[in-house]
Amino acid sequence: MSDSQRRAAAPDPLDFLAVDAELSDTERDIRDAVREFSTRELLPHVADWFEAGTLPDPRGLAKAFGDLGVLGMHLEGYGCGGSSAVAYGLACRELEAVDSGLRSFVSVQGSLAMAAIHKFGSEEQKNEWLPRMAAGDAIGCFGLTEPDSGSDPGSMRTRARRDGADWVLNGTKMWITNGSVADVAVVWAATDDGIRGFVVPTDTPGFSANVIHKKLSLRASITSELVLEDVRLPADAVMPASKGLGSPLSCLNEARYGIVWGVAGAARACYEASLDYAKTREQFGKPIGGFQLTQRKLADMVVDVNHASMTALRIGRLKDEGNCHHNHVSFGKFANVAAAQRVARTARGIHGANGITLEYPVMRHMVNLETVATYEGTEEIHALSIGQSVTGVSAFR
User: Fold this and answer.
1) 58, 60, 87, 134: which sits with the fewest CB atoms below 10 Å from its CB?
2) Does domain 140-237 have CATH number 2.40.110.10?
3) Axis-axis angle for helices 362-372, 43-52 (nearest 10)
């Protein structure tokens, strides 16, 4: 058959550029396992969890995630899975296709709390916590952000001072996912020798966590304020390899990488819901998907969804090759969050009045993305990171 006689297959509406065709068999297996689990165990309940503004059984959820193998799945040893960066990204994508709060649960556990201990902790700290956290038998949180210290974490007020052989910590951390249900908190504090990280069991006297209520976004998630009042820790509570602000920022980069993939899942979910709705909702005697304005909206959504998927996969491949710079991750978060927000807003419009209800996922995703847009680096911060990368000039100070 000549080239002129060949006919390419029509694009798959749900994977227009066949991005997933680039995955290995192992990556597809992981994608399918997490998607099947999410569809069976999470999707039927997430609207109720969102409406209630909490996760009713976080320990059961942690154990289920541990059994699935997604907690710290990209870390090596200590009971962790040692998977590729792309495989971890695919897990994040499938979880956030259900809800950003669920991906955040896994991301905070694996890419923040566990990754910090894995990178900077002592062997004793790693052996004590990582196997239990990977199994979902212990929950961790990551205390960096403060009430007055968000985009500028170097201005933190939490301090750790030496008192004999001990450390004594005082301060407050804000917007901490899993804080009130955590067994261990990785807390960053200023010391006389710079910023250091501490492994803090949450039953230590002086440590308390207050749940933050009345959230309008990321409601299927537990968010807390951490309060440290003369929290006394032994000398070996400090993570020995944690030195300076670069340590917590490197952990944030791991979590941001998960966001690059996760928001691609949120965008995909909104697009798929809109495509189905446009094909079944009738007005003026035909499905609304038959009107030009709706088709233009769907076309814009397809482009954003596929661009986000390609960006995530490319950055994942760079990461697995050892060639992923933190500015690549800034590029991904900057581009993909904006794309997902556009898709979610458009999806809410296509659904009309139905779009504001929890019967459909679109407004839940839309408001969740408002949080994702500002945590772990706002749009402005990532824009400046990219700008510094291309110009060689820092605009931060």
Assistant:
1) 60
2) yes
3) 60
